[in-house]
């Protein structure tokens, strides 16, 4: 999830700021194994023993705070960090205090499963938007305040488990949002099922993105405008910096059947039409990182992207879903919007953070960070890491994936001690990372720019490991545009 911060910019400098974006040469991948630095007061499980993660050369990683069920993040201009706790109904504020333990305040409470957090301003005022499972709230915000100001309901009665048809069961009830510079509020309404067309019959449709006004209040969930559909569970939403172009990362379906008789790639196994085989399910369908256009249909639950076509993971063609669209009569898969970038199936991408207008370390300042929560339905687990995608400006699309932080999953034992969720860039360039399984917020920092004196548990070790650094990406274009995304930007006009 992108950093939320305040920038004070005069219009005359706006184009220069965009033009000053760094080159998108391939950044270093996670290649050095280090012991995670853990303050003494935070050494309860899983940090009651030394934990190691792989980070890029020249970086360190430390536990910044322990927050049970830590999910989505947002940074404020003074360095405060907001973190959602859906199970507790709270959003916490963490403030660096100059020692090992940040100050902690309850910023907002009394909500039903609050998840995503976005700073936004209009009318000369600053606000924090919080997406609960059943409503989108707007809170007055004062820089440096420990608690949110007045709460206003922007959208109410969003689909959740209390809907009669769902009978208390809504597996993807958490909501995620983005806000454009034109004050358009984008809300992801995820599916309640794995792959049932029944989600499309609901009002509003599930497995879709809807738009509302970020300024209006008391809007009904049913009053939104359908922006795009066919997106099973879009968890991370963000705007490409300098644009109002929406991108999302999507958790795709499970237990997919072979759409026709085929030899499973990488094996000699023949999978019959309609047969469900572990070897096929393991890699189908890929998760999705894609641009979303108004009126777009991205296939689910009728069409599934094929990662083993000539296109590879870029702009993948679709196969018809065996159960839902065998004859192609429900949706013409050739007319569906292709997915911009595929991600290994079952990785469960959650947070999406574009870094192009942040203070992230230079090598990671023109792309996107995605948190992979990790698989539950794969014969060999995958995910459990943070990945970085340098931006391919020639295609206006993500380039080849680079591992940013890995090591939560032990490949040999298949045990995972943490599950990555979201990221946010601090004003000083450090990158905060959330982990809802370990109940931790980590701070990833460049040793050159951000030396740390935090004691390690035990002494820090650095062991080079194999790198999967891809080739270089094209240089980005320098097109200025509106700078309003999941962070707050205060543009002063004169």
Distance N terminus to C terminus?
Answer: 32 Å
| Approximate helicity band | under 10%
Tally of helical segments? 2
Mean pLDDT: 88
* Count of structural domains: 1
- Give, in spatial order, the strands making up the sheet with the most strands: 9-10-11-12-16
Q: Please describe the biggest sheet, giving its number of strands, its sense, and whether it closes into a barrel.
A: 5 strands, mixed
Regarding quaternary structure, how should these chains be classified? single chain
CATH architecture label name: 6 Propeller
Query: What is the tally of beta strands?
Result: 39
Content-based structural category = mainly beta
Describe the protein.
- With 494 residues, the protein is mainly β.
- It has one domain (8-254, 346-491): Neuraminidase.
- 3% of the residues lie in helices and 36% in strands.
- The chain has 2 helices and 39 strands.
- The strands form 11 sheets. Strands 9-10-11-12-16 form a 5-stranded mixed sheet, with no helix packed on it. The chain has a 5-stranded mixed sheet with strand order 13-14-15-17-23, with no helix packed on it.
- A hairpin with a 6-residue loop joins β18 and β19 (246-250).
- The longest helix has 9 residues, at 11-19.
- The protein is globular.
- It starts with 7 loop residues before the first strand and ends with a strand.
Summary keywords:
single chain; 494 residues; mainly beta; Neuraminidase; five-stranded mixed β-sheet; 2 helices; 3% helix; disordered N terminus; disordered C terminus
């Amino acid at each position: 999830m992108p950093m939320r911060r305040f920038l004070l910019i005069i219009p005359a400098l706006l184009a220069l700021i965009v033009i000053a974006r760094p080159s998108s040469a391939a950044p270093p991948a996670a290649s050095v194994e280090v012991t995670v630095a853990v303050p003494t007061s935070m050494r309860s499980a899983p940090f009651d023993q030394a934990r190691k993660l792989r980070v890029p050369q020249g970086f360190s990683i430390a536990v910044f705070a322990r927050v049970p069920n830590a999910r989505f993040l947002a940074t404020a201009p003074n360095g405060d960090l907001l973190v959602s706790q859906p199970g507790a109904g709270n959003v916490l504020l963490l403030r660096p205090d100059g020692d090992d333990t940040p100050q902690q305040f309850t910023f907002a409470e009394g909500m039903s499963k609050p998840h995503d957090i976005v700073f936004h301003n209009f009318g000369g005022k600053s606000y924090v938007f919080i997406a609960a499972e059943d409503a989108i709230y707007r809170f007055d915000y004062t820089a440096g305040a420990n608690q949110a100001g007045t709460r206003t309901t922007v959208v109410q009665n969003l689909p959740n488990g209390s809907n009669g048809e769902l009978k208390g069961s809504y597996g993807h009830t958490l909501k995620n949002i983005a806000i454009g510079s034109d004050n358009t509020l984008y809300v992801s309404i995820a599916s309640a099922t794995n792959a049932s067309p029944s989600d499309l019959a609901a009002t509003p449709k599930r497995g879709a993105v809807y738009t509302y006004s970020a300024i209006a209040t008391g809007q009904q969930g049913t009053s939104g405008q359908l922006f795009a559909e066919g997106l099973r569970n879009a968890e991370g939403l963000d705007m490409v910096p300098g644009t109002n172009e929406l991108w999302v990362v999507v958790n795709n379906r499970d237990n997919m059947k072979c759409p026709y008789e085929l030899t499973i790639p990488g094996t000699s196994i023949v999978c019959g039409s309609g047969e469900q085989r572990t070897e096929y399910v393991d890699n189908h369908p890929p998760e999705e990182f894609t641009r979303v256009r108004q009126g777009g249909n991205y296939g689910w639950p009728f069409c599934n992207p094929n990662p083993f076509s000539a296109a590879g993971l870029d702009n993948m063609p679709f196969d018809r879903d065996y159960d839902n669209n065998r004859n192609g009569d429900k949706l013409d898969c050739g007319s569906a919007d292709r997915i911009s970038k595929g991600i290994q199936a079952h990785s469960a991408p959650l947070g999406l953070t574009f870094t192009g207008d942040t203070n992230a370390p230079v090598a990671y300042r023109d792309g996107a960070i995605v948190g992979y929560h990790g698989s539950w339905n794969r014969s060999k687990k995958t995910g459990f890491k943070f990945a970085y995608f340098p931006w391919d400006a020639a295609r206006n699309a993500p380039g080849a994936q680079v591992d940013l932080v890995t090591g939560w999953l032990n490949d040999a034992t298949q045990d995972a001690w943490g599950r990555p969720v979201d990221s946010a860039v601090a004003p000083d360039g450090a990158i905060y990372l959330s982990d809802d399984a370990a109940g931790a917020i980590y701070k990833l920092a460049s040793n050159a720019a951000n030396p740390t004196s935090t004691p390690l548990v035990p002494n820090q070790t650095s062991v080079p490991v194999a790198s999967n650094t891809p080739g270089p990406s094209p240089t980005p274009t320098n097109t200025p545009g509106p700078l309003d995304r999941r962070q707050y930007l205060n543009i002063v006009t004169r």
